[in-house]
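Action item from last week, closing it out:
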Amino acid sequence: MVMIENEQLAEVPVLHVVKPEKKLEQLPLIFFIHGFTSAKEHNLHFGYLLAEAGYRVVLPDALFHGERDEGLSERRLQLSFWDIVVRTITEINEIKNDLVQRGLADPERIGIAGTSMGGIVTFGALAVYPWVKAAVALMGCPNYSAFFDAMIEEGKRRQIDIPMPPALLALEKEKLARYDLSKQPEKLAGRPLFIWHGKCDGVVPYAYTYEFYEQIKPLYEGNEDRLKFITDPHAGHKVTREAFLETVRWFCEYV
């Protein structure tokens, strides 16, 4: 049996999932970050199984999502994508600090996972937070720079008005550099990382993720078990049950 509480942590609405008898204990902590236009409730199955395994699980709503929905148009929401990503990375740290200070989270045992935008957030968090012990990125993208450019090109192709001159776009892209793990793979420091991606993904390009995996493989020489990449040759932009179960197994082994 697990309990699910809808509460605010560091002023962010979250689902807090934990076994009732362990609610006040210091526990290993797992964050699970939802995808673009999704919400925290949509990944509750991850929270349930991880809480059953003894973890404290926090599923936050990203800015403009779920309880934080402000009714933005699809265009406004898309133009806010990278602001949402960076804000979520910042808020993860604030929530972590809140739980650690209250003695509810073991600072040495914290993991992060996410789907799609949440996978992108996961890669960015690995770039800036050494306290992340292990991570799972499902349909994410570690190459912020390349994906930023691809999104701009896709916007032009769809004739979406981007209300920024080239110089301002370049500045926005530059702000993302510190979160771009593909440009600083040494920040992984050998931490366990499981990546899953469908080869037929038409939303977040598979190629960026697989290229990154090939790039970082030498960094795990001698510790190959700490890096895993599963390609689903038939999957599009949807996480399979195999990926879901492997995510739970990964954290049980490494966090």
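Closing note: The mean pLDDT is 94.
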